[in-house]
Amino acid sequence: xxxxxxxxxxxxxxxxxxxxxxxxxxxxxxxxxxxxxxxxxxxxxxxxxxxxxxxxxxxxxxxxxxxxxxxxxxxxxxxxxxxxxxxxxxxxxxxxxxxxxxxxxxxxxxxxxxxxxxxxxxxxxxxxxxxxxxxxxxxxxxxxxxxxxxxxxxxxxxxxxxxxxxxxxxxxxxxxxxxxxxxxxxxxxxxxxxxxxxxxxxxxxxxxxxxxxxxxxxxxxxxxxxxxxxxxxxxxxxxxxxxxxxxxxxxxxxxxxxxxxxxxxxxxxxxxxxxxxxxxxxxxxxxxxxxxxxxxxxxxxxxxxxxxxxxxxxxxxxxxxxxxxxxxxxxxxxxxxxxxxxxxxxxxxxxxxxxxxxxxxxxxxxxxxxxxxxxxxxxxxxxxxxxxxxxxxxxxxxxxxxxxxxxxxxxxxxxxxxxxxxxxxxxxxxxxxxxxxxxxxxxxxxxxxxxxxxxxxxxxxxxxxxxxxxxxxxxxxxxxxxxxxxxxxxxxxxxxxxxxxxxxxxxxxxxxxxxxxxxxxxxxx
Length: 525
Ligand code: FAD
Ligand code: NAD
Ligand code: NAD
Known about the structure:
Number of strands: 30
Radius of gyration: 25 Å
Largest sheet: 9 strands, mixed
Bound molecules: flavin-adenine dinucleotide, nicotinamide-adenine-dinucleotide
Shape: globular
C-alpha cells in the first residue's frame, strides 16, 4: 500500500522520540510487522484506549484489530434510540437522535481519524507509522505473551510492544431453542440490529424476546414502539417476577413491568420456555406452564459470557466466578498485557473484585488501560466509578453507579406527589434496612387492607396503576452490603452521578439519611 509506505519517513522522524524525554512505554523499534501498541477487539474499550495512548504518546502507532465490518461504535442506541428514528434515512446512516434531540452517528468519533487498513495494506507496511490504524473483519486467533506476538485469521503474525485485550462478550444461547435456529437470534451488533429492523418492516410479525434483563427489556419496549403501526406483536418471556428483576428491588421491578406492558409488550414473567416446535413458517414455544406462544422470530437476550477464548489459549488467569480475565487495579493481566471492558475482572479498590458489562466502564477502563500502556511509570489505578443508564418507555429513565443486585438490601427514597416537599424513606431502618423485607410486609398489610404509614414505601406495584406514574416519578435506591452503600440507582433523576460516586463505599446510617440524600434533590419537587 503506497500510502502507508509514503508516510513512513515522517513516522521515523517522530517515531524515534529523540525530542521527548520518553515517558512513553512502548519501545521504538523499527521492525517489520512490529506495532508498539495493538488493541484486540474494535469496540468501545479499544477506542477509549487508543485515544488515551495517543494523548500520552502523540507519535504512537496504534493498531486496532476487530472482527466486525465497521470500526468502534456505540451499542447502546441499538436497543433504544435507533428504534425511535422517524426517518429511514437516519437509520440507514446508523444515526439517531440523542435525548437532547441532537442527531448523532453510532460510530465513535474522537479527536483524530482512524485509518482503515485492508489486509493487503497491512502486509505491505514496512514500519508501523504514527497514528491510529484499524483492521476490520479480522479475528485474532492466537496470542503468545512470552514472544509478544499475535496471529491473525489470515495466518499473519504481528509483534507487539503492549497489547490490550478488549474482546467484549458473546451472547449466551438457550439450549431449549435448538432446532429452531433460523428463527432465533441474539442481539449485540449493528448486523443484528439491521436484521431485526428489516424483519419488522413487514406487518403483523410476532416477535418473542426471551430474557428480562437490560437488553430484553429495552428491546421489547423499543421494538413494540417501532412496530405499533405495523401491528408488530412483542412478547417478553423471563423467569423473574418482573422486568429487571435481578437488578431492581421487587416492588420497582413490578412497577417497571407495568410500564413495559403499557408500551404494548405482552410480558410473561415467572416463565421459562420448556420446548419448541416449528409450525409452518413459525415457531411454537411451549412454556413450563403449558401455555403456548407463537413466534415469527425469537430474540434471545439471556446475558453474555465474557469473551476469553484468546486469553484462555494464551494461558492468562481467568475469573472462575465472574468470568473474564483477571487483572489488577491497573488493569494489567501480566507484563505488557492489559484488559478493559466487558471481558475484564478487575480489582475495584472500593468495592472489591468486579466485572462490569456497561458502556462507561469500557470507556473509563479503556482510558486507564491505555494510559498505563503508554507510560511505564504511571501505574494508574482504575478507581473512577463507572456509571450506567437505561430508559424503558416514556416514564422510566435512570442512571446508576456501583453494584445493583436485587438480592442486596435496599433503601428507597421517593418524591411524594402531590404534597410537594414530602419525601418518603422507604425503609423503616430501625427495624430493617431492606426493601425486600418491606415488600413482604407491605403485601401482607395490603391484603388486610391496612393503610400505609406516611413514612413508608410506595405502594406495591400491583396496586399501582399507570395513571399513578408520579408515585415513581423521581427517586433514589441505595443498595447496601454489610451496612455499606455499594450501589445507587437514580430514578428519573439525571446529573447526580458525581454525587453518587462520593457516597459509594460509605457506611449507611439511618440517622443521617436526610443529609445523605440531600444532593439528590428528592425534596426539591
Ligand atoms: P465490545 O463493544 O463488545 O467490543 C468487542 C469487540 O471485539 C467486538 O466487536 C468483537 O466482535 C471483537 N472481538 C472479539 N474477539 C475478537 C478477536 N479475537 N479478534 C478480533 N476482534 C474480536 N451499556 C450501558 O452502559 N448503557 C446502555 O444503554 C447499553 N446499551 C446496550 C445495548 C446493546 C444492544 C448492547 C449489546 C449493549 C449495551 N450496553 C450498554 C453495554 C455496552 O455496549 C458494553 O458494555 C460495551 O460495548 C463493552 O465494550 P467492550 O469494548 O468491552 O466490548
Ligand atoms: P442481562 O445479564 O442484563 O440479563 C440476563 C437475563 O437473562 C436475566 O434477567 C434473565 O431474565 C434472563 N435469563 C437468564 N437465563 C434465562 C433462561 N434460562 N430463560 C429465560 N431467561 C433467562 O443480559 P442481557 O439483557 O442479555 O444483555 C446483554 C448485555 O448487554 C449485558 O452485558 C448487558 O449489560 C448489556 N446491555 C446493557 C444495557 C444498559 O446498560 N442499559 C442495555 C442493553 C444491554
Ligand atoms: P454519551 O454517548 O455521550 O455517553 C454516555 C456516557 O458514557 C456518558 O454519560 C459518560 O459517562 C460516558 N462517556 C462517553 N464518552 C466518554 C469519554 N470520552 N470519556 C469519559 N466518559 C465518556 O451519552 P448520550 O448519548 O448523550 O446519552 C446517554 C447519556 O445521557 C446517559 O448518561 C444518560 O443517562 C443521559 N441522559 C440524560 C437525560 C437527562 O434528562 N438529563 C435523559 C436521558 C439520558
